[in-house]
Amino acid sequence: MSIFKGDKLTVEIYGESHSEKIGAVVSGMPETTVDLENLSQFLDRRKANGGVFSTARTEKDEPVFSGLYNGKIYGDYSFYIVNGNVKSKDYSDLFGKPRPSHADYAWHLKDGTLDFSGGGRFSGRMTAPLCVVGGICKQYLLSKGIKICAYVSQTGNVIGKSYKDGELNYNDIIKESKGEYPSLSKKQEMLDEIAAAKKDGDSVGGRIECVIFGLNGGVGDNLFGGLEGKISSLIYSVPAVKGVEFGAGFDFIKGRGAEMNDGLYYKDGKVEFLSNNSGGINGGISNGAPVTIGVAMRPTPSIMKEQRTIDLVNKKDVKIKIGGRHDACILPRAVPCIESAVAIALTDIIGE
C-alpha cells in the first residue's frame, strides 16, 4: 500500500499489477458531484488502445465505489478495480533476474523479493486507481474554475508544439491534443518515431507538458509550503517520471535576468505579465498566470532487446530478453496520469 498524506487529503492506493484487484481509500475529499460518464471517458485515456505505442494488455478499469451517494462524495470514499487480464506466466523465466532500470533490484533490496511478476506494486498498472482519484479531483477543481490539461510535446527526438513557443489557451489544447496521439503537433512524426523503436525491439521516452488555467494568485507559500514542491512531489508518484520543471525550467541556465524576468503591466486595470518564464509561480506562490509544467518521461524499460543483468538465485551474470506485453512508449497513456497527480496536489492545497 502506498499512502499520500497531505494537508487535507489522504490517499491510500493498494494492490499489485497481478493481484485480484487494485483500488484506493480516500479521506478528506471536499464535497464533490461526480459525473461517472466523464470519469469513464477520462479513464479511457489511460487504457491501452491497440495503438503502435500501446501494450496488448487490456483492462476494463471500471471502479466499484463505496461512499458515492446519489452522485456525490461527502468526504471519505473508496473503490476497487478488478484485474481481469493477468498473465503471470509471461514472467516465469525472469524469476530472480531483475530487469534493467525497473524497480526489481531496488525492490529486492528492500523486501527480499525474487518474484518480479508484472512489476508488483511498482507497476504502471497502479496508475489506474491514481487516475480514478485524480479524475474526481479534476471534476472538483473544474467546479472552482480551475482547468488542468496535459499533452505530449516531445517523443524521442521529435519536438512538437510547446507552451514555451508562446501562449496556449485551454480550448486549443483540448482540441489539438485529441485523436490518435495526444500532442499538439507532429502526431504522425511522433508515431513514426515510436514505430521505429518498436520495430527494433526498443522503446522511446519524451516530454509531457501540463498547464493549469484559472488558479488564482496567492496559492501556496514559501520554502516547505511551496506550490512547485507540492505539485512535483505528486508528479513523481507516476512511474517513469525522471524530471519536472516549471516555466522555462532548465532553460533559465541559458538566459540572463533581463531576458528571463517576467515584466508586469496593467491591462484594463488588471495585472498582466509580458512573459511567463516563471511558469505562473514566484516564491512558491501562484501569481495568477497559467501554471506550466514540463515532465521528462524515461523510455519504457521493458524491451525485447537482449540486456545484461544478474541471477540473484544462482549468483551469476546472465542475459535476458523481456517478453510479455509492454508499451513501446508510455507517454500517451501517462498524460492523464500527470493530470491526475497535479489535480490531487491542487485539491489537497485548496480543497474546502
Structural commentary:
There is one protein chain. This protein is α+β, with helices and mostly antiparallel strands and 352 residues long. It has a single domain, classed as Chorismate synthase, AroC fold (4-Layer Sandwich), CATH 3.60.150. The protein contains eight helices and 17 strands. The protein has helices at residues 36-44, 104-111, 127-143, 170-176, 187-199, 227-235, 257-260, 331-350, and strands spanning 2-5, 10-14, 21-27, 32-33, 64-69, 72-82, 147-155, 158-159, 206-213, 241-246, 264-267, 270-273, 281-282, 285-286, 291-297, 307-311, 316-320. The strands form five sheets. Strands 1, 2, 3, 4, 5 and 6 form a six-stranded antiparallel β-sheet that branches. It is globular and about 70 Å long. It starts with a strand and ends with a helix. The mean pLDDT is 92.
Quick structural gist:
This protein has 352 residues and is of the alpha+beta class. 25% of the residues lie in helices and 25% in strands.
In angstroms, what separates the terminal alpha carbons? Answer: 26 Å
- What do we call the CATH topology? Chorismate synthase, AroC fold
What's the structural domain tally? Answer: 1
Q: Count every helix, treating DSSP H or I runs of 4 or more residues as helices.
A: 8
Helix and strand element order: EEEEHEEHHEEHHEHEHEEEEEEEH
- What would you report as the Rg, rounded to the nearest angstrom? 21 Å
- Class inferred from helices and paired strands: alpha+beta
CATH secondary-structure class: Alpha Beta
The biggest beta sheet is recorded as: 6 strands, antiparallel
Instruction: Provide the CATH superfamily.
Output: Chorismate synthase AroC
